[in-house]
Write a structure and sequence with these properties.
The chain is mainly β and about 500 residues long. Among the domains are: about 50-290, Trypsin-like serine proteases (Thrombin, subunit H), CATH 2.40.10.10; about 310-415, Immunoglobulin-like (Sandwich). Helices cover about 5% and strands about 35% of the residues. It is built from 2 helices and 32 strands. The strands form 7 sheets. Strands 2-3-4-8-7-6 form a 6-stranded antiparallel beta barrel. The radius of gyration is 24 Å and the shape is globular.
Length: about 500
């Protein structure tokens, strides 16, 4: 997105296979995949004359290549903090409902990374003060310096907006994108944008509230965590109003798999809808209240950042409903742990507006379960609980609350999908030299998350007998010259376990 000991997921293997295939030269794909939307290009480099105004924006490397902003806490003697995304600081690998507070952390924040400017300032990351992808994709990272020390160096810290902006407001995005760029071109880039509406968003196993749609240009890998800034009449940054955290640019509905990685969906009255060509920024309004008079980060009081008291050890996912297994053989189930051991209640509900898990009425009549305290990421401590999904298509949440802490409840996402994949199955055939070939089945999660295949003499092979097909893991099929020609038959399964038609690929000999 439980297992007795969390193993490397089938998804990780699939994605690894996709990456490996993409790196191979001379691939021929049959059949043709669905057309993809054009990828975004990087925004223009920030002009040097604007560097001083935007000098508080850094290239972050505290878990992945991202961007972040030096926060003006109002206390020069206090620690220097950077605001960025939770997925930039390791939350992709943590349970989706967990909140991380006050742990030692590493990495760097590099300021003044502008085109044509030679003097840069690199500051070490020493603490993850706050990080989560639960209901908000937000992290606050403490640096190995005081705010005053960085201000004396000439960096301009930016305050966080106390209240939400409005739809239609003009904003500026400045970050350090990296995707498809040479290292020397990893520099501050500026885009001028307009805010769209504010939405609840789903992507993969994550649910985020208060996310602003926007038309910022050049949102690509590395843009994550970069600020949306309100500016004054002179173009000087005033406040941070949002953090870029995802985009649907580069994806189309024809690809299928809405709400998957890099295919975010807006929660609507009809469930969830992917809007093409749209970027999103996580709301940060009021987070300036999360710092005390000494400039130290502090949860509680007026600080709006959520803290989970319970989270799921599994990742939810898509299934065909009725207890049927998904494409990996996993049946719908979950297990919960808490910040502290105690009791919990759970409920399965339609997604609705995605707030039901925070409402006391959701748990009326729910039975109590024992809740162990959470442990290491790779341990399962919670008791597995079956999830009885309906067979009608739709999106659902398993809600879980520890005691009466409704604000800290978990909202684990499930989907019932009984629609055959949009993407077809197929194969990639690569020349291996000396007349041999390597055959990769085409993987395109979530629409083709895994495949089954068989090969042999075209006159003898029965491609309708799918019971004899074998499962693909990570190793491609190698066929020597004396084994050719062959017929290769393959079908795919989407994440939920729905099948494609069988595709036939005839591989000729040398």
């Amino acid at each position: 997105m439980g297992k007795p000991a969390r193993r490397r997921s089938a998804l990780a293997c699939v994605l690894g296979a996709v990456v490996l295939c993409g790196m191979l030269a001379g691939c021929v794909v049959a059949p043709e995949p669905a057309p993809e939307a054009p990828e975004a290009e990087a925004a223009p480099a920030l002009p040097l004359e604007q560097l001083a105004a935007f000098s508080g924006i850094a290239a972050m490397n505290a878990g992945s290549n991202c961007s972040g902003t030096l926060i003006d806490t109002g206390t020069a003697s206090g620690p220097a903090y950077v605001l960025t995304n939770g997925h930039c600081t390791g939350d992709v690998g943590r349970p989706a409902q967990q909140t991380t507070l006050g742990i030692e952390w590493g990495g760097t924040a590099e300021f003044l990374r502008a085109e044509g400017y030679g003097e840069r300032l690199t500051v070490e990351v020493v603490e993850l003060a706050y990080s989560t992808m639960r209901h908000t994709d937000t992290a606050i990272v403490r640096l190995d310096a005081t705010l005053g020390e960085l201000q004396e160096f000439g960096l301009r810290a930016v305050p966080i907006a106390a209240s939400e902006p409005a739809e239609g407001d003009a904003v500026v995005n400045v970050g350090v994108p990296v995707q498809g760029l040479d290292y020397d071109d990893w520099v501050l880039r500026r885009g001028d944008c307009t805010l769209g509406g504010q939405h609840t968003l789903i992507e993969f196993q994550w649910l985020w509230f208060g996310v602003w749609a926007n038309d910022c240009p050049g949102i690509i890998q590395g843009s994550s965590g970069s600020p949306l800034l309100s500016v004054d009449a002179d173009g000087e940054p005033r406040e941070i109003v949002g953090l870029i955290n995802t985009t649907s640019v580069g994806s189309t509905a024809a690809m299928g798999g809405a709400c998957w990685l890099n295919r975010p969906c807006q929660v609507t009255a009809d469930g969830a809808v992917m809007v093409e060509g749209t970027s999103y920024a996580q709301s940060v309004a009021g987070m300036g209240s999360c710092f005390d008079a000494q400039g130290l980060f502090a949860i509680g009081g007026d600080c709006p950042l959520p803290v989970s008291s319970i989270w799921a050890e599994g990742s939810g996912g898509s299934f065909r409903g009725g207890g049927e297994p998904d494409s990996t053989g996993r049946v719908p189930s979950t297990s919960f742990v808490g910040a502290e051991a105690g009791e919990a209640r759970t409920a399965l509900v339609p997604i609705g507006d995605a707030t039901a898990c925070l409402e006391p009425a959701t748990y009326a009549g729910a039975a109590l379960i024992d809740l162990p305290a959470g442990g290491e990421v790779w341990e399962q401590l919670g008791v597995p609980l079956p999830v009885d999904l309906p067979t009608e298509e739709g999106r659902f949440m398993v809600c879980a609350v520890a005691g009466d802490d409704y604000a800290g409840a978990a909202s684990q996402l499930f989907a019932v999908d009984r629609t055959p994949p949009v993407a077809p199955a197929g194969a990639v055939v690569e020349d291996a030299g000396d007349g041999a070939v390597i055959v990769w089945p085409r993987i395109d999660p979530p629409e083709v998350s895994t495949v089954r295949f068989i090969w042999g003499d075209a006159d003898e092979l029965d491609c309708d007998d799918t019971a004899s097909f074998q499962e693909f893991f990570t190793v491609p099929l190698f066929l020597a010259a004396d084994e050719l020609p062959v017929r290769y038959c393959v079908y795919g399964l989407d994440e939920a376990g729905n099948r494609t038609e069988v595709e036939i690929v005839d591989i000729e000999g040398p």
